[in-house]
Design brief:
Elements lengths: L1 H4 L5 E4 L8 H11 L1 H8 L4 E9 L2 E8 L5 E6 L6 H14 L3 E6 L4 H13 L5 E12 L2 E10 L3 H13 L4 H8 L3 H20 L5 E5 L2 E6 L3 E7 L6 E6 L4 H4 L9 E5 L4 E6 L9 H10 L10
Parallel strand pairs: 4-5, 5-6
Antiparallel strand pairs: 1-6, 2-3, 3-4, 6-7, 8-9, 9-10, 10-11, 11-13, 12-13
Length: about 300
């Protein structure tokens, strides 16, 4: 027995500062280069979208995306959790419209574990919070980082809440009665959706429209959103297309230069604002744009 015991080293947990000098200048850049380690523990395929991403007057540590195309944020801190970082996490969620929020610290108080669990049980369907302990483990002279997931979304509860939400269907009438959407904007949105569905049908794409609170999403199999008809903007109905990268990187020509447009960086959405039904463009062009990326095709940047 004694001989066997001597074969093994003693596992120790060391302070994070022994591995990284500080959180913003050392650990966060390291994590950005080693997202596979974090992703393996969370069971998420994570990709970097931005570091020190501006959110109003503040800066988010890491803006990420998962394999489902969801917006993911990560807020890091050394030592134990505190209210300041919890507030930052919620602020960044609101500022980026994140669907997944990850709070990383060396230790979590019971109160903060309970707060994350409460958020998972009570926030909007599809929003998930993770609490992850950063561990620096040492055996002999060797050190290794490890992520211990203390809190994760309850997937079964989320599925049940989604089922309930799906039964409460939105419609054009509810948009008008409950959201007080102007009649002119409703009519424009209705005609835009009809034109989109006609173009989608002509291409025999297996996409379906789903009414949500304030917008209609068009999704391909797997619930991946590809197009959006958003009624929440005063400038007009926003016709949005999801893209895999920045506009400057893709070099896509603007199909509707006559319309006011905007790039939503956090969600990677290109939007055009359509003030009225009389100003609806040929939406077949945006359907074609979405179809190319969702069939594995590449955008022809030489146009």
């Amino acid at each position: 027995m004694e001989g066997n015991a001597e074969r093994f080293g003693r596992l120790e947990r060391r302070p994070a500062r022994e591995g990284w000098r500080n959180e913003p200048g050392d650990f966060t850049p390291w994590l950005a280069d080693h997202l596979d380690l974090l992703g393996a523990e969370l069971r998420l395929a994570l990709s970097l979208q931005g570091r020190e991403h501006p959110v109003g007057r503040y800066f988010l540590d890491l803006l990420l995306q998962d394999g489902r195309g969801r917006v993911v944020i990560a807020e890091n801190q050394f030592e134990g959790t505190d209210h300041d970082h919890l507030g930052k996490l919620l602020t960044y969620c609101a500022g980026t419209k994140a669907e997944v929020a990850i709070w990383i610290a060396e230790s979590f108080t019971d109160e903060h574990v309970a707060a994350l669990q409460w958020l998972n049980d009570n926030t909007a369907v599809g929003i998930g919070f993770y609490g992850v302990e950063l561990e620096l483990l040492q055996i002999g002279e060797e050190r290794a980082p490890h992520f211990n997931v203390r809190v994760r979304p309850n997937e079964w509860v989320q599925r049940q809440r989604q089922a309930v939400a799906d039964r409460v269907e939105w419609s054009w009438e509810r948009y008008q009665d409950e959201l007080r959407t102007p009649v002119g904007r409703l009519e424009a949105a209705r005609q835009i959706l009809e034109s989109l569905e006609q173009s989608i049908g002509e291409r025999e794409l297996p996409w379906q429209a789903r009414f949500r609170k304030g917008y209609v999403s068009i999704q391909r199999p797997g619930d991946y959103m590809v197009l959006v008809v958003d009624l929440k903007f005063r400038a007009g109905v926003a016709l949005k297309v999801k893209l895999p990268d920045q506009l400057s990187t893709l070099g896509i020509p603007n199909p509707f230069p006559e319309l006011q447009s905007r790039w939503f960086d956090a969600n990677k959405e290109w939007a055009w604002f359509i003030p009225s039904a009389e100003q609806i463009p040929d939406v077949a062009e945006v359907v074609e744009l979405a179809a190319r990326f969702n069939k594995g095709e590449q955008i022809d940047t030489a146009q």
